[in-house]
Amino acid sequence: MRLFFSCFVILGINMLVVWIASAAPSGITSPKIDIKTIEVAYLFEEGKGQTAQDISSNKRHGTLEGGVKYGPGKFGTGLVYDGKDDNLIVKGYRGLGGKQARTVLYWFKSASAREHSWVKWGPNEATKKFYVRAHLDGAKCYLRIENNGGNNWGDANVCDGKWHHHAVVFPNGAKDVQDHNIYVDGKLNKKFGKANAMDTDNKTQEVVMGDFLAHHEFMHGSFDEAAIFNVELTAKQIQLIVAQGLASALNGKSTAVEAGDKLSTNWAMIKISY
Ligand SMILES: [Ca+2]
Questions:
Q1: Beta-ladder partners of 89
Q2: How many A from CA of 63 to the centre of ligand 1?
């Protein structure tokens, strides 16, 4: 009888282990973000000069062109684009290619409703470009990704003059521009647009934040906490970044912190990155 109960207890423990393992099978579902998956990330806390410091270990510092100024950001300071010629170039970095999973995110506060150019790389050739821009709809605009031949835009107005967090996610194993998930303020948007296979070029054009490609317009407004990841971030990870700021989220903090702490965390991150 005792043997029977021992077996029963051991079986129960095994089942518990299996249950725990299946509940958290990998890092994919974890809100913790692996800092090694960052291609480039800017907090824009310098406040002056023409170089935005990349807080990733890749040291892909951004070159500010056209007289981009620092001003109030979503967290600390950010960039203010005049909409005429302001741009950030990630010199020597040409983005992620092919069907590589990726996440592009940043904060933006519009100064007008237009076809803002936010983040792009690749040439203006079918399937080759990767262009995150605004889809204009009267006085409203939506977050849009396009790849020359196809496109995908959401349904949350981000041209209302308020700060909004944008995230464009190309998931693992995805093939088409319509496979992108678009999040505004951490909320998944509805999808509109046209299907087209993804095959991004990462050899031709440097990544820029602000300038347009063949058409459309320069970004006009305030910009902060921009980052590109070489993985699909989950909704929970994006929501963590929205709630806590990029630096705190990357430091693995699981609870909200005060604004003052966010700023000191940012500075700690910047110091670590040098
Ligand atoms: Ca900032």
A1: 63, 208
A2: 16
Question: Which residues hold their Cβ within 5 A of ligand 1, which is an ion?
Answer: 43-44, 73, 75-76, 78, 224
Distance 173 CA to ligand 1 centre (A): 32
Q: Residue 10: its pLDDT value, please?
A: 53
Residues 6+ apart with CB under 8 A from 258: none
d(CA 19, CA 68): 53
Q: At which residue do the structure tokens 């005060």 appear?
A: 258
Summarised one tens digit per residue, pLDDT across range 84-140 is 999 999 999 999 999 999 999 999 999 999 999 999 999 999 999 999 999 999 999
214 C-alpha vs ligand 1 centroid, how far in Å?
A: 29
Half-sphere exposure of residue 245: CA atoms within 13 angstroms, side-chain side: 27
Whole-number Å distance between alpha carbons of 85 and 87: 6
Provide the pairing of β-strand 87-90 with 62-65.
antiparallel
Total residues belonging to the chain: 274
